[in-house]
Amino acid sequence: MKNNNLIFLLFILIIACKSPEAFDTKVVNKAIENADMSHKSFQRSLDFTRSWLQKADPISGLIPSNLKSKVDLWDPANAAADNYPFMVLTAYLLDSDLLNSTLLDILHQEKKLSSRVGVLPDVYSFSKMDFNEYPLNMGHVIFGASEYIKDGLIPINELMGASPWQDRMMEMLDELYRYTDDFTALEKYFKKSSSVEEINGEMLQTLSRVYWMTGDEKYLNWALKIADHYLLDTDLSQINYLRLRDHGCEIIGGLSELFLSLHWLSHPKLDAYRPPLYRLLDRILVYGRNADGLFYNAINLQTQAVVDYRIADTWGYILNAYYTTWLVDKKLEYIDAFRKPFKSLNRNYRNYNWEPGSQRGPLGSHDGYADAIESGINLLNRENDLELSRWIDSEIKVMFGMQKPDGIIEGWHGDGNFARTALMYGLWKTQGARLSPWNSSLRLGAEPSQKGTYFVITTQNDWEGQLIFDPIRHKTILNLPIDYPRINQFPEWFTIDPSADYQITASDKSLSTSYSGAKLLEGIRLKLFAGQRLIIAIE
Q: N or C: which end of the chain has fewer CB within 10 A?
């Protein structure tokens, strides 16, 4: 037994001492630090998922929209759009058994029980075992389907690709096309114009991405019809109420996505859309921002007045549009607007109350933090700014502190946004890589450097599995011409090109060799002993 222990210790020593000069100590230590943060992100997301699943209706298996006022309801616009999808993505990354059992069952159940207009869902009551309201309110159905597609299923699709959830997204989208041939007629269903703008904005984002994914012209033509309404038939730059906070900002992002698509297609509508889109974006910069470059909740572009002076937690959603538009024409004012907030975040927006409320504490709702941090992560993916990264690292700790010991955050559908942002943060800290199967004893962190990207794995227990790297998802899943910033996307960090070759230097000699990109995308098989640390550097 003593001899066996001695052999094991020597083995670990050999691994630990493998060519220390080959690794940059500072980068390794940073990767270890990132591993601790990614672990917290993933564990908290998993705690949220498991806790909410315990609240599911025992008969239908569906989760409620709220643990207080809507405990009896599965609502497509809330439970389906904002909460359930990020349970799915949590399980996709961390618990495949949960994904392919309970969470897949929910998908089948919601389709079976809540589909009301063809495959379009409506609010389902657990106690009634029927739809919550009669007669049918088509406006609610359209809104719920639009929310479910864009806020929930689109993020799943961008990370997972082909799946039953992608199938659900496409069938609902095609049903919307069938039942609602004119989205400009939505006004009859809604009292607030911002609701109409939200739906149209969501559809523009969805249709632009789905067009590239499928190559089907019907989605592009549908998007053009909506854009014609906002950019040619009316003047959005003169609107008397423009909500910049979610969900009103959806239309701005949607128009910018379509604009970029038309650029890559050399579409004749591009030149017609450019003046009115620029007019809108220019006026928002003049009348819709504070001195720090962040956006007010709502403005009146007709009178050039601020309607709501609170600062939008979704500030990055709007800046996505400026960056996307800048990619087309390189207008300097737009990239300057994109960068401007970075300088003030640490000075003025730490511990900031993004979503105040009478029953909330001095920091407001976690949902405000989730959206604000998501904003920052998506922008950081485009420009690696030290001030921005410091702010994200600071504020994620505030958001994490809002989770209750049982895993619930606030007990409403917005809890899903906590998991969404936590997963985004964790994947930043792993550079998009993951371990399968995952367990709570594992730590994975990554850090880019001039000599390649470092991945450091530690485990408290013996473990065998795969290190899986991120493909170039905007190409492999969506077939996009360029990875422009998108609301609710999961950014790409370190990605593997299947046509490229990579050199690995590892603390385990057996792994130190050259790999084709195609081979790396299959994952690296690993076997680690309890207490082992594995360093992998990839060039």
A: N
